[in-house]
Write a structure and sequence with these properties.
Blueprint lengths: L2 H14 L49 E4 H7 L4 H6 L33 E5 L19 E7 L4 H4 L6 E7 L5 E9 L8 E11 L3 E12 L2 E2 L21 E5 L18 E6 L15 E3 L16 E3 L2 E13 L4 E18 L3 E3 L29 E4 L6 E19 L6 E21 L1 H9 L16 H7 E26 L2 E20 L1 H4 L12 E19 L8 E12 L3 E7 L1
Parallel strand pairs: 2-4
Antiparallel strand pairs: 1-3, 3-4, 5-6, 6-7, 7-13, 8-12, 9-10, 9-16, 10-11, 13-14, 14-17, 15-16, 17-18, 18-19, 19-20, 20-21, 21-22, 22-23
Length: about 575
């Protein structure tokens, strides 16, 4: 970034942090108009930032937007944009941590302003990056010039997806020179290393600017057992144990012997394999079993030992933008970006029981003639098991994100009015692969089998590769999101009042949105054990939006009063699948 640009952004940052006695500001997504340096380097021209479509004097104390510059991000030591955002006081709630949650997380990094839910609108250079918002992990840190954050609701200018606020990530442009950066971080306790690489190179003259760049980031996993603060508690256990637990009759030992002498002979008791039995035994005897210790540190399974506190991940991105002045009043703009991300997650091995793998809500019986049943009777009550031999359940997710923009911006003669228009195409492809899973139908068949390939929940480490291959399966879901839009915006001054200039902005936007998620047959048929079943999803719609904003200065310091102004704004959205939604603000 040039020294003049740094000075401009720093002054912008300081100015917009101030607040006024009264301000009725609202937000509108636009293509940022960058201020140009004046002759003396001290005065800044009005520019459009998130929060209004009207060019704003950045020294106006009524502007209520937080701006974080490239240097702010660098000084924080953050390796990613999501790391930086999570350090801010307004970024609270679980909506900011999906990339780290081990159970139920998506591997993406979102933003939840002030814990108000999913109503935070994310923008890139003033325009929407996709129908699901912006995955902060897909934003290359090297591309960022500044981040603008409006913490007030802005549905009157952005629509209902901005009720909690708006975050606009502004990319660099107009850069001369090249920069290469390398970063690495780790701890002395467990290898949780993070490494990052980035480059930027750009050329610009009076009429043309071109910038390209790229970044790479990789981070190792951190597991719950690696830190005292996250080490699983003794109570983080499950009755789905390994070896399995079985409900049998107390006197199944025969000869008057009982598993539990304090209980009746025909009582049901829970038993599990005696851990002193030779692990290579193919068929234990009833005497090789003992009462199941159903306490936290007894025979229950410590599932939390398998889960990561932080997923391992890998990401790389390439980006570029260009501007070309076509005439004194018209400039062509273009942007392109590609990002790839991969994350890995794992859970404890698949748990299942007589009911969960049964049919129509009935318990699945392990028959007396199952090849490995040592009890000489049907196990028709409860039994619990965990498929440790298949390994942990795993989740691997990849995202490929594409963004293209082409547009024009300029001025209407000498009227002082500015305009811009653009076409934007965003596409995000994803693939989710689930491993360590069992086939419910194959498990049912194997439990009823009388041969050596039968499922054996009774022994310890006895399943052969052939048995495991019969039971195991991998599940895959592929999907795609598309957001295509074009827009037109116009803003300028209307007339003067004693307190200042009345300004206006109007605009129109058309969006096409589509979403598709296609799980494989194993998920759609419900042939799952350790993961949920899933149905295919498909939807698409068109949205036409019109919006307007008027800024009216009422009083200024020159009148001897505090500055006072009003903003009147409104937006109307017509959804092809929903109807019309209007959001006024006075």
């Amino acid at each position: 970034m040039k020294r003049a640009d740094i000075a401009i952004v720093e002054k912008l940052k300081e100015a917009v942090r101030r607040t006024a006695l009264l301000g009725l500001g609202v937000s509108l997504a636009v293509m940022p108009i960058f201020a140009q340096e004046s002759d003396d380097g001290d005065e800044l021209a009005p520019l459009v930032i998130v929060g209004s479509n009207i060019a704003t004097d950045i020294g106006d104390p009524q502007v209520k937007v937080d701006i974080f510059t490239e240097s702010d991000i660098e000084d924080s030591g953050a390796e990613t944009l999501s790391q930086f955002i999570r350090k801010q006081p307004f970024a609270i709630g679980s909506g900011n941590s999906n990339e780290t949650r081990s159970n139920g997380g998506s591997g993406q990094a979102g933003l939840d302003l002030r814990g108000l839910g999913g109503g935070t609108l994310m923008l890139i250079n003033g325009r929407r990056p996709g129908i699901g918002g912006l995955d902060l992990n897909l934003v290359p840190l090297a591309a960022i010039e500044r981040v603008e954050i409006q913490k007030d609701g802005a549905s009157a200018l952005y629509g209902s997806d901005a009720i909690a606020g708006v975050v606009n990530v502004v990319f660099k442009k107009g850069y001369n020179g090249s920069i290469v950066e390398v970063g690495y971080g780790n701890t002395t306790d467990t290898d949780v290393g993070q490494e990052s690489y980035s480059f930027i190179t750009g050329l610009s003259d009076e009429k043309t600017s071109i910038l390209i760049g790229g970044s790479y980031y990789e981070a190792n996993a951190l597991y719950s057992v690696d830190r005292d603060r996250s080490f699983p508690s003794p109570g983080a256990t499950s009755i789905h144990a390994y070896p399995g637990a079985f409900e049998v009759q107390n006197d199944v030992l025969g000869g008057g012997n009982l598993y539990d002498p304090s209980a009746a002979a025909d009582a049901s008791v829970w038993v599990t394999l005696n851990d002193r039995v030779n692990p290579s035994a193919t068929k234990p005897a009833p005497t090789d079993y003992r009462l199941f210790n159903n306490t936290g540190e007894g025979d229950r399974f410590p599932y939390a030992y398998y889960t990561p506190s932080k997923r391992p991940s890998e990401r790389y991105s390439f980006f570029g933008n260009a501007e070309r002045q076509l005439t004194d009043k018209i400039t062509f703009v273009a942007e392109a970006m590609y990002s790839h991300s991969y994350s890995y997650n794992q859970f404890a091995p698949s748990p299942f029981n007589a009911s969960s793998v049964g049919s129509d809500g009935n318990k699945l019986t392990i028959p007396q003639d199952n090849h490995y049943n040592p009890f000489g009777q049907d196990i028709d009550g409860w039994w619990f098991y965990r498929s440790v031999e298949l390994g942990p359940r795993t989740e691997e997710v990849t995202y490929d994100y594409y963004r293209f923009l082409g547009g024009l911006k300029g001025e209407l003669g000498d009227s002082g009015w500015s305009w811009d228009t653009a076409w934007v195409y965003n596409q995000r492809d994803f693939v989710e692969t689930l491993g360590g899973e069992l086939s419910r139908s194959a498990l049912q068949e194997a439990i009823a089998d009388t041969g050596e390939l039968a499922f054996n929940p009774f022994g310890y480490l006895v399943h052969s590769d052939a048995q495991l291959a019969r039971l195991g399966q991998s599940l895959t879901t592929v999907g795609q999101e598309v957001l295509q839009s074009y827009d037109m915006r116009l803003n300028g001054d209307l007339f003067e009042l004693p307190a200042g200039t009345v300004a206006m902005a109007v605009g129109y936007e058309h969006r096409y949105e589509s979403y598709e998620s296609i799980p494989d047959k194993g998920q759609t048929s419900g042939d799952t054990v350790g993961f949920n079943s899933s149905n295919p999803l498909h939807g698409e719609r068109d949205i036409d939006s019109g919006f307007a904003e008027i800024f009216i200065p009422i009083a200024s310091g020159s009148t001897g009063l505090h500055e006072l102004s009003a903003t009147i704004a409104g937006r109307v959205d017509r959804y092809s699948d929903f109807g019309t939604d209007a959001n006024p603000l006075f």
